[in-house]
Amino acid sequence: MKPLRESPGLPANPRKRLPAWRLGFILLIIFLACVQWGMVRSRHPTVVLPDGVRVSYYGSSHGVTMGTSNFHHTGPPAEEYHPFWLHWLRSSLPPSISSHLPAPIMHRTGYPAWPDMHEFELQFQTKGNLSQHPLDIFVADEHGWETRVRDYTWSYNGAAKSTGEAVSGWLRLGSAYPRRSKTIRIVFHPNDRQTPKPDRETRLKPAAQMIVPNPFWQASSSNVAEPLPLSLPFRGETLTLKELRRDRIVGDGYGALHSLLVVERDGKPLPGFEVARMSVTDSSGQVFRQTTGGSSESSGRMWNSIDTAPWSDDPCWLVRYSLCRKAYSLDVPEDEQFKFEGLPLPSEAPINFERKVTCRGMTLSLGKFTQASDAPRFLVSGLANDITNGKRIILLDARDDQGRTETSDPRFGRRKIVGGPVGGSQEGMTYSLNLPADAKSWSLTLLVETLTEVEFRVRSPVANTPPK
Asked: What is the pTM of this model?
């Protein structure tokens, strides 16, 4: 029997649809391939420094920092670290989804309560010696704002040098990190250990950089901040934070965080105060403390700068200041003054003298001259000038028996009779003595000043000022 001919008017047989399970399987393969591609792409980002040292990202940890027992061992610097694929996946998905993924693995040990250390740490494998390397390391957010890493070290991993292989080890960056950026840029800048020393323009140009996924990412902050200027009550007057400005690159020798404070009475600047300390805390609780910087005061306007600061990705900063009266302040009540009068002159032979003054329940003592290349020195004991205890010794007045408060020296020019402090310890503070040659005796008046702490919750200054 002949097969029936297909009628030319009939449509062709419809194409069979792919079963749902096969379609799902193909999509799964595509997804896994993308994940694998992301893992390969983000796994061990590497940068080669100008001298050939190779630095590869290894992982991160939380709570392991300098000073712990496993810091210099020859194996990996942490027993557990974040899986690379989890970094990539968390940073690629929207927060509504990524917040439901498993939390990154955190390795914890007993974390020392050092004020200038941070619990977060990025870890790198290195090929080449990074000891005394002529590069400084910075962390940058996604907008290019950089902050120098203050706490880091490189340790040799114990590999045999006799094999002829390059020295290798672990680089560990214990630092604060941007919390709102999904990636972090590690930037290497030339420092002044190079010969010849680079100029400022050269130092600001990156020598090398690499991008790593941010294992410390958090969702946006809900903290409320206010624009400047902001005012607070201060010792019966008004204290106003007029300006907060951040250089794009912040670090000793590179740039700083600058601020301007003004004490006002009846709307006019009131002189006589200075900034003893400044710190900044970002909305995640990371503290940025001053190590180097500077401060000055003129007619009630106090300028201050510090060499560290948060990044532009954080909308809310908590800025804290410790304020006190300046040296040689006026209008200090008599019952606050520690007056030492008729003090002896220093001589070539050691002179031990002891003078004590008690005021408001506190006793300060003067005694024993020591010699130094620039001027004799003496010790004021009874209070270590450590501002963390909330108090500070202030020089109010120093003069010789003829009433002179300054002296002239061919090497140093005009300077105060008493200068400093020039050193200190838990025993007390050391000051220099610069008397005129014909002085017969001298007197000293001190003040134990209680620091006043103030804090401002402000918007990140990068919202108000362009990068420099």
From this structure: 0.74
